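As a warm-up, study this chain.
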Amino acid sequence: MKNLTAQQRLWFYRTLTLSVTAIIAHFALVWAMPRLIMRHVMSGPQAVEMNMLNNAAFPPPVDASSRRVVMPSPDMLYSVCVFDVSKGPVRVTARPGLKTYWSIALYGANSDNFFVVNDREVGDAAVDLWLVSEGPNAADPTVPNGAKVVVTPSEKGFLLMRVLTGNYEAEKSIVENARRTLTCHKV
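Now compare it with the structure written out below.
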């Protein structure tokens, strides 16, 4: 292999530095973006306005002007809750009692979905979740009979309940009552 000239070495090191910097910046962005987005979702102005911290909130039905979520589905009603298990467990309950699709999904602070329950799994039974932080929970009160313990990967997270409605105006009383069975509160 022949020796490189000073000019060639300079360009080699410039290219290498630029490539390494671009790779590091890419990985930093891929790691940071989901966390920044979730921080905004969980602590932003809408979260404060809707009082979502350890409390179920019920946004209005989606229409053509709704763009809080990219491409929201007008066939779904959403219920939300920001949970914080840093000071103890959070209990989530719901009993939609619907024959159509509904689901409750839990997301960590990095936007990873770590738990889902839906109508096929539960049927007409009630959902009773006991959210706790990772590690020992010695100070936690006794888990109620029938509650499912869910260990969250982060102290704060986001709950999204979806209820399918084919015709909101015709089904309004049924689907609104179903989604409003959601409770989310610190124990």
